[in-house]
Design brief:
Layout: E1 9-13, H1 18-29, E2 33-38, H2 41-50, E3 57-61, H3 71-82, E4 87-90, H4 105-126, E5 138-142, H5 155-175, E6 181-187, H6 193-196, H7 217-228, E7 239-242
Parallel strand pairs: 1-2, 1-4, 2-3, 4-5, 5-6, 6-7
Helix pairs in contact: 1-7, 3-4, 4-5
Length: about 250
């Protein structure tokens, strides 16, 4: 049975690959209409061709790390185009290993822009009551297990994700009065194009930390779709770590 209907519109950012792609495909498969946002139009067109219901997937090309201060206005234009939104999954993000001795302000700003400031200002826009359905609306942001338990070299990355987790918890208290819910999902290592192409991530000596093996994008997408659905109507302000039960 479908969890959603085509009249329910969801935004998915970072939809061209990895966790964003898996989330967009699963929402679409479950019957929802999805506004898929990413930087590359060619990848978004590939996504549309993979959909179970391609007529219910809409492409929006946008670099969310640019013009961050105006992202709430961008949300407003999307609402005027598609109507009020039922939910949003913010899946765009970037990772980086930078030890403190090599730290620069520009490195820090670049990572915080996409991992923290962009989702915060997208949240500001989508949580404006003029842009969402009100009671029943759900926002889910992808954070990271590194935001809870970082490894060496992750001072910037874990800082950006930890900041996002805490901000989402605070925001949940602001929007609960009109029935909106906000949560985070924090995966550990997941087999995405980025990790598969990095030989240093999916290495054998990391396997003992993952008793159920490497996670797949759909493992995270399933949790996101659950939190976006009415099945999770009593859940807000939480951070769900998806880590195969052993990485923290």
């Amino acid at each position: 049975m479908s969890e959603f209907i085509k009249e329910q519109f969801f935004i998915v950012t970072g939809a061209s690959s990895g966790l964003g792609e898996a989330t967009a495909l699963e929402l679409n498969k479950q019957g929802a209409s999805v506004v898929a946002i990413a930087r590359r139009e060619d990848k978004l067109k590939e996504l549309k061709s993979k959909c179970a219901n391609p007529d219910n997937l809409y492409i929006e090309v946008k670099d969310l790390s640019q013009d961050i201060d105006n992202l709430p206005d961008y949300i407003k234009t999307l609402k005027e185009k598609y109507g009020k939104f039922r939910g949003m999954a913010y899946c765009a993000g970037a990772g980086s290993i930078i030890p403190i001795r090599a730290l620069t302000y520009q490195d820090t700003l670049k990572l915080f822009n996409i991992n923290y400031f962009a989702p915060l200002f997208m949240a500001k826009g989508i949580l404006d009551k003029r842009n969402n359905i009100g009671k029943g609306f759900s926002l889910v942001c992808i954070a990271s297990s590194a935001g809870v338990s970082p490894s060496k070299g992750q001072c910037i990355y874990s800082g950006s994700k930890g900041a996002l987790i805490m901000s989402i918890k605070a925001i949940s208290k602001e929007v609960s009065s009109y029935g909106a819910r906000v949560n985070c999902v924090s995966p550990s290592i997941i087999k995405t194009p980025m990790t598969v192409n990095d030989e240093g991530i999916l290495k054998d000596d990391n396997k003992e930390k993952y008793p159920f093996g490497w996670g797949e994008p759909h493992d995270v997408a399933n949790m996101i779709c659950y939190l976006l659905s009415d099945k999770a109507k009593y859940i807000s302000g939480q951070n769900y770590v998806i880590d195969s039960g052993g990485s923290l």
